[in-house]
Records
---
Amino acid sequence: MERKRSKVMKLAYTATKYLFSSHNITSILSIITYMTNYIQEIENLPLPFIFYNPITNSNISTDLFQYVILALVQCLYLYLSFNVCMDLYHSSVYSCSNVKTDMELFMLSIEEFDEVCEAVMVTDYGEESQKRRHEILREYVKGLVRQHQIIS
């Protein structure tokens, strides 16, 4: 079960990492195409993402230095947002995974309680048989209640 969760986590991490990497590669390829004179005007270079403002012109950079600075800032932003996304994803998956594991352990405890209950009912404890059975079952129920409180 843990291996499957770990595999899913690695798959999600890899997919998200490559998505953010592809956005960052856009800036690098744009600079290379500008340096090779494939694209003549700096305004035609794509950025990793564009903040569109309908009131002003969206092309902010007018020379290569401005473009490089803007691309670096956006790549840094993408890197930081990638880390935040992964941290949030990991924390949510791990918390759900822990609750599921605790619930499975609780189910095992209930199955064990069922077996103990059957064994206690069959066993003869002599004169105080009923009282002894209640004590044994009470201790098991207390353990189940404690475990249930930990889960919730």
---
Amino acid sequence: SRNSNLSYAHDLLVYFVNQSVKIYDKTFPVYNVHNLIHLKDDSEMFNCSLDEISSFPFEDYLQIIKKFVRKAQNPLSQIGKRILELEVFNIKERKSSSHKVVISTRGKDSWFILRSEHFLQIKEVLRDGKIGM
């Protein structure tokens, strides 16, 4: 049942936090880790599943957003530009932690598939980092 699953999840999270203190030290359970033991209470109070109150989708997307920033200056502007580029060029996002995207004007690294399923070939990479197609 939902209540027994919530209780079991709570017990596991409390165990994790307690064991982490023993394995590392008492400074390990920072705010994020400590809050794990309160997930059951939040789920019951808001009458929703743990998935509905989880911040994992946000944190996952935050990793994508961080990749949009190329330098420390004007990060919000850079993020806006990268999102606009994705929308304008209708580019399919590909999540991959093991592959780096290589943009080149030569060979296989010059071709991309857009969301519209059209092919795009990079013809020129300008000095300012803009791409000619």
